[in-house]
Amino acid sequence: MKLLVTGGAGFIGSAFIRLSLGTDPEVEILNLDKLSYAGNLENLEPVRQNPRYAFVHGDICDAALVNSLLEKHRPEAIVHFAAESHVDRSIFSPSPAFETNLRGTFTLLEAARIQRIGRFLHVSTDEVYGSLAPPLEADENFPLNPSSPYSASKAGSDLLARSYFLTYHLPVVVTRASNNYGPYQFPEKLIPLMITNALSDRSLPVYGDGMQLRDWLYVEDHCRGIWAVLKKGRDGEIYNIGGNRSLPNLEVIRMILAATGKPESLIQTVQDRPGHDRRYALSSEKIARETGWQPLVRFEGGLAKTIDWYQRNSGWVHRVRSGEYLKYYAQNYENRQAELRSVTDAGGR
Ligand code: NAD
Ligand code: TYD
Question: N or C: fewer beta carbons within 10 Å in the chain?
Answer without folding.
Answer: C
